[in-house]
Amino acid sequence: MKVAVVLTRIPFPLMKGDKLRAYYQIKELAKQHEVYLFCLNYKDEEEKAKEELSKYCKTIHIEKLNLFSSLLRVCFSVFSFLPFQTAYYNSPKAKKHFKAFVKRNNIELCYFQFVRLAPFAKKIKRKKVLDFQDTLSMNMKRRADNSGLLQRVLFSIEAKRLARYESKMFEVFDALTIITDADRKLLKSPRKEEVHIIPNGVAESYFTYPQPKEKPYDILFSGAMSYAPNIDAAEYLIKEIMPLVWEKKPNVKIAIAGGGAPISLQKEANERIIMPGWVDDMKEYYSQTKIFIAPMRIGTGLQNKLLEAMAMNVACITSPLANQALKAKDKEEILIADNAKAYADCIIDLLDNEQLSSKIANAGKDYVFNEYSLENSCEKLSNIFKN
């Protein structure tokens, strides 16, 4: 089948959750289908990405958007009910080019990522599948609850618009997917049970990596550091959790890996807080740490970072919020904490008890390979395409 994958970002390099999901799905789908990639983009990061993605895609079209025009559309959307992020990408020129792309390549099915791309689907006479990924309306609501006054107002408006818009997607697409059942339950539509669960996945072969005897980092956190939930988690780790750990273990070192960190976060770097920035291959860092921590307080969806760390046989600690999607067993496959002291206690327990650390790491690794197989996830998606 000729499948057009339609994205708001080029899915390489692998620096954000949506890019990771799209890249690995493309890689797996290419085993059964002809994949044609249509991406929207602002930045000049195309050549390396094209070289990598051409291994799996028959054709790659990167549509350059004009930033000024996008911002202007957002301003005008204040007077409509369209979500701001949908208006941002709703380029008439890009939609025209996409329609021609579908016709030129005789596309049989279009697979869109995020509701913000729904306007691109409306006049396409092909089978159409939308990947919600997360319930973005709830993501915006949680960000509103943790923001200052102006941002709270904007995020609250966006949350309400997204909730209405998400409910309308059942009329536009032939099938809908989402990463977790927890996110599906957050959708406002009475038809939400029709949405297929397609979890993120990990490939066991990819996460086979040499394990050094000495691990230079005691704790690792990673993610796109331009993303508000990751910034919040990093600041929480540095300012509230680690001081409690350092009271008892002053030599503990943490690494915070990921590009785009704001200056305020970069200033926290010192001999105990290592910030390498963007990392080409996170497997190197997973293999060099004793503990992975994801103290997420806002955001939705299944955290790729946790799947990857657990696949790399690292003992993990996270929040109840992040584990809503993951559904790992506390004190068996993962450790769950809901306040700074609880996180610090978990860290100290794992550092002091190698047997406990190994038990959590081994059980966590088995869990993600059993429950979050990339091959199984993409096979389910492929079956949705075929049916």
SSE topology sketch:
Elements: E1 2-7, H1 17-29, E2 34-41, H2 46-53, E3 57-64, H3 67-77, H4 84-89, H5 92-104, E4 109-113, H6 118-121, E5 127-131, H7 136-145, H8 149-168, E6 175-178, H9 181-186, E7 196-197, E8 217-222, H10 228-248, E9 254-257, H11 263-266, E10 273-277, H12 282-287, E11 289-294, H13 304-311, E12 315-318, H14 320-326, E13 335-336, H15 340-352, H16 354-371, H17 374-386
Can you give a write-up of this model?
The protein folds into two domains: 2-201 and 374-386, 3-Layer(aba) Sandwich (Rossmann fold), CATH 3.40.50.2000; 217-371, Glycogen Phosphorylase B (Rossmann fold, 3-Layer(aba) Sandwich). The chain contains 17 helices and 13 strands. The chain has helices at 17-29, 46-53, 67-77, 84-89, 92-104, 118-121, 136-145, 149-168, 181-186, 228-248, 263-266, 282-287, 304-311, 320-326, 340-352, 354-371, 374-386; strands at 2-7, 34-41, 57-64, 109-113, 127-131, 175-178, 196-197, 217-222, 254-257, 273-277, 289-294, 315-318, 335-336. The chain has a seven-stranded parallel β-sheet, sandwiched between helices. Strands 10-9-8-11-12-13 form a six-stranded parallel β-sheet, with helices on both faces. Helix 6 (118-121) links the parallel strand 4 (109-113) and strand 5 (127-131). The protein is globular. The model has no long low-confidence stretch (mean pLDDT 94).
